[in-house]
Write a structure and sequence with these properties.
Elements (H helix, E strand, L loop, with lengths): L2 H43 L5 H16 L2 H11 L9 H26 L3 H9 L4 H31 L11 H12 L2 H38 L1
Helix pairs in contact: 1-4, 1-7, 1-8, 2-4, 3-4, 4-6, 5-6, 6-8, 7-8
């Protein structure tokens, strides 16, 4: 294929692929909106006094980390109808990727919470602050600030994982590229353009994460001096 032919193909395919990219971004945003609050809840539950709560949280986390994303997507979309629970492909994708977000995000939150100095807890208790208010006003905000760069990195991984949603018929970017390739048999042009669109999102986001990590590192180093 000549460069001119590739440019012509890209001009023809770009509108369809941009629609797919928008669907991918929406799926990623929905998965994060579901998964991150659940991740925080699981991180807190893993430190709960009741053993049954701790083990329940651990089970959800380890299952979400162990099962491949494509298996969770297939279970949510094709498996649940067998128990009379039918989900649209978008909802199924959100549920599956939201669980993965919660599983990995809980470990990130737990690390951030554990990084809060013990003196902060002791000071809060000495002032008569209840356990709930201590976590809500002191521990969780500081732990979340520490965890933020890693959470943004997780968000990038979830965006990349949305490509697997083509297996349940969701018209995201990979699905749009695959359909165009089947229609035109110009897989090289289509997949190259799709890869460039993924790159256009991931590289700037990764740059922001690195800058934030460096900024947080300098800030924490200044606090320790």
């Amino acid at each position: 294929m000549t460069p001119a032919a590739i440019w012509t193909d890209w001009g023809e395919y770009l509108p369809t692929l941009l629609e797919g990219l928008l669907e991918s971004l929406e799926l990623c945003a929905a998965s994060l909106a579901v998964g991150l609050p659940l991740a925080l809840a699981l991180a807190l539950a893993s430190a709960a006094p009741l053993r049954i709560v701790r083990w329940g949280a651990l089970l959800l986390v380890e299952a979400g980390r162990a099962l491949p994303a494509v298996i969770l997507l297939q279970l949510a979309y094709y498996g649940l109808p067998s128990i009379e629970l039918v989900l649209t492909n978008f909802v199924a994708g959100t549920a599956a990727l939201g669980w993965i977000t919660a599983a990995y995000g809980s470990e990130i939150f737990r690390g951030g919470i554990a990084s809060v100095p013990e003196g902060q807890r002791e000071a809060a208790l000495a002032l008569g602050v209840g356990r709930f208010d201590m976590y809500r006003s002191v521990i969780v905000p500081q732990g979340t600030r520490v965890a933020l760069p890693a959470l943004l990195g997780l968000a990038i991984q979830i965006f990349q994982a949305t490509a697997l949603a083509f297996t349940i018929g969701l018209p995201e970017l990979m699905s749009a590229a695959y359909d165009l390739g089947n229609q035109t048999f110009r897989f090289l042009s289509v997949l190259t353009l799709a890869g460039l669109l993924y790159t256009a999102v991931v590289i700037p986001a990764s740059f922001i994460v690195r800058r934030l990590e460096l900024r947080m590192g300098r800030h924490l180093a200044a606090e320790l001096r």
